[in-house]
Amino acid sequence: MPNRKSRPQKRRRRSIIAFEMIRLDRTATEPLHEQLYRQIRDELKSGRFGDGSSRLPSSRTLATDRGVSRSTVRLALSKLHAEGYLRSKPGSGTFVANLLPETFLTADRPKTYQPIERPIRISDRVRAIPDGRVGDQFDLGATGAGPGVSLLASIPAVDEFPIAVWERLRTQVLAKKGVNLLRYSSNRGDVDLRKAIAAYLCDFRAAHCHPDQIVIVAGMQQAMLISAMAVLNPGEVAWIEDPCYQQTRRVLSLAGVKIIPKPIDNQGIVIERSPKEPLPRMIYVTPSHQFPLGVTMSFQRRTALLDFARAHNAFVFEDDYDAEFRFVGPPLQSLQGIDNASRVIYAGTVSKILCPGLRLGYIVAPEQLIDSFVKIRSAMDQHSSPIDQATLARFITEGFFLSHIKRMRKIYAERRDFFIKQFNELLGDRFSLQVPEAGLNIVAWLKREEDFPMIKRITFDIGVRPSALSFFCIQAKLKPALVFGFAAWTPTQIRESLVKLASALRSRGNDLNHGRQSR
Ligand SMILES: Cc1ncc(COP(=O)(O)O)c(C=O)c1O
């Protein structure tokens, strides 16, 4: 029998209400305990503490904080108890009642805000962001990247992240640099991190850069926003790939840029333009592994793109979000590495290599743009967390970064092969996979286009959540396809999900098809 007494007691932390806003008037005729009772009651009635977990301070603390006697406090609290505003939990303290007396008197929850009589005015900037989501749909934590075997695209295996190593390095950098990491710090980013990233990019992405060209940012989106704001005036043109990473469109719209979608062929972005089409100031591309189609940009197209940019005084934004995960052939040089005219703004992120929660990325800026980028970053949010930056610098210089990439490449290669084999076996009658050379996603083209609505409905119902390729399209009219992620799940989980999808398609798909035919 386990010894109950010796087991450490787990105590749930509760938030303690401070009642900082209470003001007692000693000159008033109303007794102090009445004033205290009334003001506490009014705060509780405001509805801000209504989840039953808010605890009151002890009567001693309340008396000291408000400068009154404990008996005054006790009188006020006992009245609140008697009226049902408070409940006592022996050994734990006094809590706000789960249901306040007002709940029984009014049918509705007490309103905590005044209804707005006229619709509020929203800026054109918000309206211009091409994004139909509302309310909770914006909460990426709740909608996109949560646990569960969703086969959602672009999710890395965060459970493989070496948390213990990270924690040890973080403790070490805090011990070494102490309060220096708690101050405002460089808008360019931690100098050790910039050195480490420059060395990594020169070595592994064949980039040509020095640490002063690096600006540490809060991920790829911020890299895009800073770049667009630095090189384009509102209304000027940026070309983006079509289909494209959906956030690119949103971010560039936020910067007030006019977006021209450019199609993708089997070599990458199509550069040809009609004579009437305005020239771009910036061209966004994912050359290592086009998102979402997976095309690797050919060498020919790379040089043509750089020539075009040079000829028309444009910049190329190279989003190198997951080049580390290349499974076929030798590593490819970055576009930045073959640019000898300072036309490429190169950007990377740790979102796929390590984890998205860190919100860290980097720009390699052409020298003439560095100051403008830093100026915008300082006006935006100053810099990323110095503690995380210093920890990442250590993580890279001590070799953990490379060993993590190597380990993850192996895990992802195994998961990818497994996914392809299982998918073809279980679902090959309905889809053909387009297997890319790199990356964490795979496009599955439907063999019968008319099945698309039925398949979409079934995937939604069973909680498997590949994205429709059309979600990433702007003008492109592509055949129906789904974009699957495979990286975040073990082979067993992948198989379970694919079996579930295959059997749902078999049973419900047949029913739905029958229904359609007999209608
Ligand atoms: C093309 C592309 N770029 C960048 C990212 C990551 O951006 P961030 O660094 O803002 O997380 C993603 C994520 O899915 C992506 O698909």
Could you explain the architecture of this structure?
- The chain is α/β, with parallel strands linked by helices and 519 residues long.
- It is 39% helix and 12% strand.
- The protein contains 16 helices and 14 strands.
- The strands form three sheets. Strands 3-10-9-8-7-4-5-6 form an eight-stranded mixed β-sheet, sandwiched between helices. It has a four-stranded antiparallel β-sheet with strand order 11-12-14-13, covered by helices on one side.
- A hairpin with a 6-residue loop joins strand 11 and strand 12 (441-446).
- The longest helix is centred in the C-terminal third of the chain and has 28 residues, at 400-427.
- The protein is globular.
- It starts with 31 loop residues before the first helix and ends with a helix.
- Mean pLDDT is 90; it is low at 1-9.
- Bound molecules: pyridoxal-5'-phosphate.
- Residues 154, 219-221, 245, 286, 291, 319, 321, 349, 351, 356, 361 line the site of pyridoxal-5'-phosphate (PLP).
Number of H- or I-type helical stretches: 16
Helix content: 25-40%
Quick one: biggest sheet?
A: 8 strands, mixed
Q: Kindly name the structural category.
A: alpha/beta
In total, how many beta strands?
A: 14
**Hetero compounds:** pyridoxal-5'-phosphate
Spatial arrangement of strands, main beta sheet? 3-10-9-8-7-4-5-6
| Shape summary | globular
Cα separation of the termini: 65 Å
Strand fraction: 5-15%
Average pLDDT reading: 90
H-E string: HHHEEHHHHHEHEHEEEHEEEHHHEEHEEH
Radius of gyration: 29 Å
Low-confidence stretches: 1-9
